[in-house]
Amino acid sequence: MQEVKENTLKTIRNYEKDRKQAMEKIALYGSRLIEKGDVLMTHCHSHTVEEIFKKAKKKIKMVYCTETRPLFQGRITAANLAKAGIPVTLIVDSAAERFMHPVDKIFIGCDAVLSEGSVVNKIGSGLIANAAKKHHNPIFVCTSSHCFDPATYFGFEEKIEERDQDEVWPKPPKGVRIRNPAFDIVDAFYIQAIVSEIGVFDPENFALEMYDRLELGTRQEPFMGLLETIRKKKP
């Protein structure tokens, strides 16, 4: 029992060490993408994006943070950046395109990277990505390589969580239906690059790099067999 405990603690310590080292690398790579006098935008709250901005603090002219409805995680980002001495302006989500003109670059985090380089991030990310493409503003996705979901390589779909309506409107009028999807899928087409601890890649090449690192080609047959079994069991 003592040996199991020690091994568990060792694994936890190693994971925490690896996580910190990965964050330092991402912050370094991401900060290099920011130029002197840049005006930036971000959506929701990402520790990774925060660390990049703090690393590039002296080069940043302004950061626009969307408030991020319905839980207002963007307020957390704005407060933390202000505390770090970074100029920051909070805007409502629907004003994102209105402020695209002064913005030079957009940085967002993500919850998952899919097999072709698309990413899953907080709802509203898709609208911001569309506006960014329209105004020719590059959008950078900042994340650990551990967020790559190998299951999508084998045909599994990424499930988009839908949360309780009370987050949006606790007591809506009778007859009003509320939908509250928590995440968007941002197509790889809109993404300039994915910034991770393994480097800065365009979305397709990031996915290819992960295929190689995880040796997914050699594991395709057993996974496809499993997928077929699951599909047959569905009613």
Topology (SSEs and partners):
Blueprint lengths: L1 H30 L6 E5 L4 H9 L4 E7 L6 H11 L4 E4 L13 E4 L3 E2 L5 E4 L2 H10 L4 E4 L40 E4 L6 E4 L2 E3 L1 H12 L5 H14 L2
Parallel strand pairs: 1-2, 1-4, 2-3, 4-7, 7-9
Antiparallel strand pairs: 5-6, 6-8, 9-10
Descriptive overview:
The chain is an alpha/beta fold and 235 residues long. It has a domain at 29-153 and 184-218: Translation initiation factor eif-2b, domain 2 (Rossmann fold), CATH 3.40.50. It has six helices and ten strands; from the N terminus they run αβαβαββββαββββαα. It has a seven-stranded mixed sheet, sandwiched between helices. A three-stranded antiparallel sheet has the order 5-6-8, covered by helices on one side. The chain starts with a helix and ends with a helix.
